[in-house]
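--- STAGE predict ---
source: upstream dedup step, 1 unique chain passed
mode: sequence only
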Amino acid sequence: MLNIENATVVRGGKVILDNLSLSIADGEHIAIIGPNGSGKSTLIKLITRELYPLAGAGQNPVVELFGRDRWDVFELRSQLGILSADLHKSFTDDEGLEPLDVVLSGFFASKGVAGHQKVTSEMIDAARRAVTLAGADHLMAKLMHEMSTGEARRVLIARTLVAGPRAVILDEPTAGLDIASRRHFLHSIRSLTHHNKTLILVTHHVEEIIPEIDRIVLMKDGLIFKDGKKADVLSSRNLSELFNEPIELRESGGFYSAEIELLASDRIADLD
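--- STAGE serialize ---
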């Protein structure tokens, strides 16, 4: 699905990705984890062609998606279903957006459906199927700006799936969700793994790693810090090195949680 070789991205004179190489197979389920500023979002923008790697001066980067290094951006985005907190904000800030139009806009990589865009009956049928798969049927009578964060996120899952993408990219997908909404959202995400799609989860929360994800990539300072099977990579030691904090990782029922260990220097002295 993805092959990146020797990609360096520089923004504002600062190296954000440093000679990065990464391959992801079709149908693979992978989580990319790292602290803020590690280069995760830049990596996603590299994949979606919002950014390009540095070329020339000895740089010979490769960025291939589905075996091709040249894409029309709109054609590529029909192959990639993308859900992010930024996307959520763009669809809920404006009043008057109807959820079915939002879902249909996934066919056009646009915000809503414009008058010149031809919506077919097949597209409408596909949109309704995606809405049902995302568990959003009961939300179709609401406008997007009237929905809770969790409700709007369900509609955007449907938008992500409507065009039948070969890969789904989730960039910090539970940002802004409460505990219950996050649980429902992760349940919806688990269902995606049974449809032979590549799933790429980008996060800094190990709680979002669903059991079906079997590969972990840890990013730090624009580099791949660790990459491998979940059982080998996801550990207290690796997370402690990644976040520069003493982290204790726990696993229960295929899900993970992490806590920063309280050091003696962190304790508040008894002033009495």
